[in-house]
Amino acid sequence: MFKFRFKLDKNLMLVSIAIIGIIVTGVLILSSGNPGQFSFKIGSGLSNEVIAEKALGYINKNLLSGQTAAMVGVSEESGLVKIKIKISDREFDSYASKDGKLLFPQVINMEKDISQPEQRQNNQPTAESIKQTCDSLKKTDSPELEAYIVSKCPFGLQMQRVLADVVKNAPSLAKNIKVMYIGAISNGKITAMHGEAEAQENLRQICVRDEQNSKYWDYIGCHIKAGDVDNCLVSAAIDKNKLNSCMSDKNKGLAYAKKDFDLNAKYNIGGSPTLMLDGVQVSESLFGGRTSEALKSIICCASSNKADICSATLNTLEAAASFSETYVGSNSGSGNSGATGANCAPAQ
After folding, report:
1. Domain co-membership, 134 together with 250
2. Does 65 share its domain with 182?
3. CATH number at residue 71
4. 115 found inside a domain
5. pTM of the full predicted structure?
6. Do 234 and 184 share a structural domain?
7. pLDDT tens, position by position, for the chain (348 residues)?
């Protein structure tokens, strides 16, 4: 019996690999001229059109209220399916992952400078589209705008900044605004999207809101600057003994929080921030984005008897996201919720 021993030559291996590389490169070059001839399906294999229709259905069912989005076009951009939709007379770009599982109502182009106010205002809806949207809102004598947030979400902080500015410059509308919190109670403890520190801050803000309400916006106006709890409690003149009692007593703080969380479930709240107007979800992007003027417009549009402040114009610049010492910061202008915005959502 003969035994053959083969010894691999390293040079031969390198040459073989190089030849394979040339062949693959040639295939890719040929496919660029006729992409339909050489295609590789990865993941689910869904077509862009199918993914776009799925995304459109989700947007209409879950993100819009009193409006319907229509498809304008489908393309690809940076490895995502780009979906152009139209709401009223305004067009938006949304994006979805190629497996059809993730929807990005808006993406941030990191190659563009969005820090300049004039660039942030380019996406303002037309006066006519705002009027049409305004007319579609149900009117009541005292509309209630609820903003569902978590306290350490950059976009939740952005929404609190906008609302604080509305309360400061249009105090008559404060009665129409309420900040609600997203979370759950597990084993007798409050939980939140971003861990224990956020859960405790949510509980702290809930207790201030429900037991020391006249000091709530003073505390929030301080907290959104740097998250300095101790100094903000002092500057807002919060009664610490009353606050500690609320946070440690399950019949107070946890009971207040449970009311918020029950409404989370009722309204199927999925991200921070989410706006609910008299129990119906509303998108601030249709009124101009996360600006004081947009939030004022939502309340005024839903009012049967408009307050004098409704004829005034508040800040039309988008507020800074995350912690910021000023209303407008370098991180402003990128996070509208609803059909075109960014928010914080629970991990799936």
Report:
1. yes
2. no
3. 3.10.450
4. no
5. 0.66
6. yes
7. 434 343 445 444 444 444 445 444 444 444 444 443 333 333 357 888 899 889 888 888 776 655 677 888 889 989 899 998 877 656 778 888 999 989 887 677 777 654 444 444 445 567 777 776 899 999 999 999 999 999 999 999 999 999 999 999 999 999 999 999 999 999 999 999 999 999 999 999 999 999 999 999 999 999 999 999 999 999 999 999 999 999 999 999 999 999 999 999 999 998 999 999 999 999 998 999 999 999 999 999 999 999 999 999 999 999 999 999 999 975 554 343 333 456 787 654
**Interatomic CA distance for residues 338 and 292, integer angstroms:** 17
> How far apart, in whole angstroms, are the C-alpha atoms of residue 203 and residue 18?
62
Residue 216 CA to residue 204 CA, distance in Å, equals: 10
- Name residue 277's beta-bridge partners: 145, 280
Q: Looking at the structure, tell me whether residues 100 and 132 fall in a common domain.
A: no
Reduce the DSSP state of residue 3 to 3 states and report it: coil
Provide the sign of the torsion angle of the four alpha carbons 135, 137, 139, 144, taken in this order.
negative
- Inter-helix orientation angle 240-248/196-211, to 10°: 120
Q: Please give the Cα distance from 275 to 281 (Å, whole number).
A: 6
CA 227 to the chain's CA centroid? 20
The structural domain count of the chain equals 2
